[in-house]
Write a structure and sequence with these properties.
The protein has 127 residues and is an alpha+beta fold. It is built from four helices and three strands; from the N terminus they run αββαααβ. It has a single domain, classed as 2-Layer Sandwich (Alpha-Beta Plaits).
Length: 127
């Protein structure tokens, strides 16, 4: 049987082990959190812990927010950024968990986020 270009081939199972280093997982988690929170990956701290045999991820990071002056002038700016800080942190948990799982193949039990500050963003809407 011939295969067509772009067709997905089934994975071949070979003996041995595949391991993703903690450093690689941490870099991936930082990038996923940065994407979800609208900040730079260098601003994200990520730590891993064991949660009954699964990986638990703890993120500490600032979040991008509009200036208070902009919000006073136009309260819809909050929605333009994706909602309240609380709503965005809750949504980021799911996004980070899904992205890290998708790209690493690792199973995470949970993602904990601690918002450590705010990055004020002037001008254009984020979302």
């Amino acid at each position: 049987m011939s295969s067509t270009a772009g067709a997905v081939q089934p994975a071949v199972s070979l003996a041995g082990h595949n391991r993703i280093s903690t450093q690689a997982l941490t870099t991936l988690a930082r990038a996923a959190a940065a994407e979800a929170l609208g900040i730079s990956a260098q601003d994200v701290r990520a730590e891993w812990s064991d949660d009954a045999g699964l990986l638990a991820l703890s993120i500490a990071a600032p979040i991008r927010v509009p200036s208070l002056t902009e919000v006073l002038r136009d309260p819809s700016r909050v929605e333009g950024f994706g909602g309240t800080v609380w709503d965005r942190a809750v949504a980021a948990k799911t996004a980070i968990l899904e992205r890290v799982t998708q790209l690493s193949g690792s199973t995470l039990s949970r993602v904990d986020i601690r918002i450590s500050g705010a990055r004020i963003s002037e001008g254009a809407r984020v979302r």
